[in-house]
Amino acid sequence: MAMELRHLRYFVAVTEHGSISQAARGVHIAQPALTKQIRDLEEELGLTLFERRSRGIQLTPAGQQFLTDATRILNEVALAKERARRVSNGQIGSLSIAITVLHALLPIFSQIMRAFRKSVPGVSISLRQLLSGPQLEEIRSGRLDAGFLFFRPAGDEALTGFTIHREPLALAVPRDSDWAAKPPERLRELCEADFLWFPRKASPDYHDQLIHCFRKAGFTPRVTQEGEDNSALLSLVAAGLGCTILPATASINAPESVVFLEVKDLDIKLPLDLVWRSDNSSPALQRFVEVVQACVSKDQ
Q: Which residue ranges in the chain fall short of pLDDT 50?
């Protein structure tokens, strides 16, 4: 006979009730069947677990030790079942999430993190700040569970997601510049300005959308310097080296030497999406997605 969990449960029940007849009623099996299960267990162990007496049973020293271990095993099994159930329900676990550097302070993101913590306190989140391109690479590789990023690739069935926020763009200029004193109304007024730009490889979709917007507005930028990302461009503007286009959220942490201006025909709004792999079946991730969807619906 191979020992099974039921043998441990029957054994513990007998010790708790003090007799096989009472234990049989407690575990809802016939007394002869329970007697046989206990005998099979003793044969499997090669030990006598009980001393049978006229007034019931008494554990032998070996039985006392076996009771301690059997109780611990059954408790651990019960805990394992509960942990597995909670993991299956997305109640415990861990997630690796990323967000673009500019958007960590967005009110909607703070709402999401607070709501998730309140709703699912057993799931821990490792939060990273990454640009959109690197986020996509990390999500595809499985090193990230999900990310808040710009421009989810259209038509990529390996990725799924939805928009949580649409980010307006603004013209960033040095505070002591003529543009700050007399803001341009249209992009074409900037044709002679020193324009700070970024290489297309940094964000091809964003780059191409801006170029399309510029052409529609009759604006050909005179690029004098490049910056790899928004933070680098903001630093160049702060140094007085020119103007650039940035997400409006960049104004939150902008130095006082930079002014953000609205321009009428700069009408693009960047979609900030929550993105994850379509084949990621993590229950914890599903709970996170549900919380984000609820926060976005409430915010609209």
A: none
CATH number, position 190:
3.40.190.10
* Angle made by CA atoms 219, 224, 229, in degrees to the nearest 5: 90
* Domain stops at, among 31, 62, 88: 88
**pLDDT in the model for residue 1:** 62
Packing angle, helices 31-45 and 20-27, rounded to 10: 110
Cut 0.90: pTM above it: no
Is residue 206 within 8 Å of 167, Cβ to Cβ?
no
As given in the structure block, the two tokens for residue 1 are 């006979």
- Give the span between the Cα atoms of 122 and 125, in whole angstroms: 10
Domain of 145, in residue numbers = 93-160+274-299
| Residue that has been written with the tokens 């099979």 in this structure | 40
Residue 123's beta-bridge partner residues? 93
**Alpha-carbon span 190 to 244, nearest angstrom:** 10
